[in-house]
Design brief:
The structure holds two protein chains of two kinds. By secondary structure, chain A is mainly beta. Chain A has no helices and eleven strands. The model of chain A has no long low-confidence stretch (mean pLDDT 92). Chain B is mostly beta strands. At the A-B interface, strand 5 and strand 10 of A face strand 5, strand 6 and strand 11 of B.
């Protein structure tokens, strides 16, 4: 079974631009979560989608948004990029939101904002 | 809110040494507990889990026991290998989301 895939793996953008990251979950998984990982803040939860609906959201500004499609694939968008948005963005999928909330992570997209 | 606190690293050990990485949690409900491992350049991989008090999770020689009385889930391995060098994350989940600890970097030297 294929794992979680994320594209692109690496991205360099300029301040003020916007970016879209993509995540394809494990087949059959309906829940997709996004995290931002930085050396200073560690792993921070961005949002979770389940059956095309955002079910939970972390404490990030409105510049960060996402969506999920009917095939469970998900995208996240960051508008008006800032230098502090440079991070590894991780996507994780799970079968459902019932316990145990076991998530499977993709390799991440490394975003660098210059 | 729910949170996870794990020992700060980095931790450096010699091959075949005993490993303990401490993890304590704060939760209002009855969370599930996890250890994830992140190798360089990769995403997180689930290492082990425990869903209720006194459960012991184990995988690849690593073990952790869900201790409700001490709100802890310490990770242990009896004999580490160079290939265990990675960052280890303790995490909890209680219905709605997952909370991760800050991560502990382990380096094992031959």
């Amino acid at each position: 079974k294929a794992g979680v895939t994320q594209t692109p793996r690496y991205l360099i953008k300029t301040r003020g631009q916007q970016v879209t990251l993509s995540c394809s979950p494990i087949s059959g998984h309906r829940s997709v979560s996004w995290y931002q990982q930085t050396p200073g803040q560690g792993l921070q939860f961005l949002f979770e989608y389940f059956s095309e609906t955002q079910r939970n959201k972390g404490n990030f500004p409105g510049r960060f948004s996402g969506r999920q499609f009917s095939n469970s694939r998900s995208e996240m968008n960051v508008s008006t990029l800032e230098l502090g948005d440079s991070a590894l963005y991780l996507c994780a999928s799970s079968l459902a939101r019932d316990k145990p909330y076991e998530q499977y992570f993709g390799p991440g997209t490394r975003l660098t904002v210059t | 809110g729910d949170s996870v606190t794990q020992m700060e690293g980095p931790v450096t050990l010699s091959e075949e040494a005993f490993l303990t990485i401490n993890c304590t949690y704060t939760a209002t409900g009855y969370p599930s507990l996890f250890w994830y491992v992140q190798y360089p350049g990769e995403g997180l991989q689930l290492l082990l889990k425990a869903t209720k008090a006194d459960d012991k999770g184990s995988n690849k020689g690593f073990e952790a026991t869900y201790r409700k009385e001490t709100t802890s889930f310490h990770l242990e391995k009896g004999s580490v290998q160079v290939s265990d060098s990675a960052v280890y994350f303790c995490a909890l989940s209680d219905r709605n989301d997952m909370r991760f600890g800050a991560g502990t970097r382990l380096t094992v030297k031959p």
